[in-house]
What we know:
Purple Acid Phosphatase, chain A, domain 2, 19% helix, 397 residues, 2 domains, globular, Immunoglobulin-like, alpha+beta, six-stranded mixed beta sheet, single chain
Amino acid sequence: xxxxxxxxxxxxxxxxxxxxxxxxxxxxxxxxxxxxxxxxxxxxxxxxxxxxxxxxxxxxxxxxxxxxxxxxxxxxxxxxxxxxxxxxxxxxxxxxxxxxxxxxxxxxxxxxxxxxxxxxxxxxxxxxxxxxxxxxxxxxxxxxxxxxxxxxxxxxxxxxxxxxxxxxxxxxxxxxxxxxxxxxxxxxxxxxxxxxxxxxxxxxxxxxxxxxxxxxxxxxxxxxxxxxxxxxxxxxxxxxxxxxxxxxxxxxxxxxxxxxxxxxxxxxxxxxxxxxxxxxxxxxxxxxxxxxxxxxxxxxxxxxxxxxxxxxxxxxxxxxxxxxxxxxxxxxxxxxxxxxxxxxxxxxxxxxxxxxxxxxxxxxxxxxxxxxxxxxxxxxxxxxxxxxxxxxxxxxx
Length: 397
């Protein structure tokens, strides 16, 4: 009997690892009210479908998956250094579920893999309250990610904005596996909408591993930048080349696209996120070229919140409007942008010195940011792994 129990438990553990090892996660590449995209990986190429429906027992709709072949790169340690090992190829699958109803819970499974049935909920049609989380800069250290995501389960975030540097290096499949495992169980129901960091580039300075794993919105002349709407908020992932310092041509192209994008939205709140800081007293500090191009756009279209990483720590700015005053803050966030550095999900911490714009500095603590969105305000809290509140403020409009 004991041997049977051990064998049964072993089979269950292996099955769970097989399902989780496929790195199943959600993104949006289209309207969050009516679509959802599932992303996963496999060692083999095969026909694969997603079955989904309004109940766990009636999965009466199907979506075909598209597939992409990528290199399967691992690493081994030799004399305290990481050496790359070529392990052949992997296949990345993406299935877009369309014609969904807003504010509706759906059940789904990946048919070809025999996965468990999971659920997700589409975005609201109107301006319902919702919560999302933000953070980044784990750089392959995924234990703090797992602890922070576990803590975040208690308030049911609708999605996760990751502001870059998921891995270092970007082509290590083992680190990708660890990252997606760290998102569980929320990762089965909570879309992740990342922006690329400098360490998310491959050795040849492109983002093929990053782009292969995340199906994201694509727009004409947008490059790696994208935007989407959720409730009464317009979200923009910008400055997507993410290497500091950025070339002036990449900065100018992104700035031009961003201005057009922000001019086109009528949403009440505007949140921009990227990897590199525009206002920071951390070790990387301010890229003056980027600041000169982007802050006038933020001021003109009143971006409420700019979320970034790259500097490993936490710093919140006072309300800043560089068009009105170059070196002094405004009285409220109605008059200026909140620049929020949140790079504390696992990478080695940096020092922050503070400056005239600094409203809050948090020492070297792993953390994520919780944002509760309502018609009246953005209520923003910064939390450590135990759920302790480290910062708490509102942006009212």
